[in-house]
Each structure stands twice: as structure tokens, then as C-alpha cells.
Write a structure and sequence with these properties.
By secondary structure, the protein is mainly alpha-helical. It has one domain (1-40). The protein is built from 1 helix and no strands. The mean pLDDT is 80.
Length: 40
Amino acid sequence: MNIDHIGVVTKSIDKSINQWKVIFVFKQFKHLVINTKQKK
């Protein structure tokens, strides 16, 4: 099984990214991408 992407809802990505890295054993290879077309 391949997982393409995972959606996570959080109040602050900056404050919670380290927690999610531990939970999913995630290593970030690229910088954070901000979708400017998405409504805030």
C-alpha cells in the first residue's frame, strides 16, 4: 500500500509539526508549501 498524502487539521502547523513527525515517523524532505488559492 502506498500513501500519497495525509491531511491533518491543526490550529498551528508550526506548533504541532514535531508531534506529527514522531507519530507518523515522518521526515520532511521539502519546505512547507502554502496553498494561496485555499480559503482561510
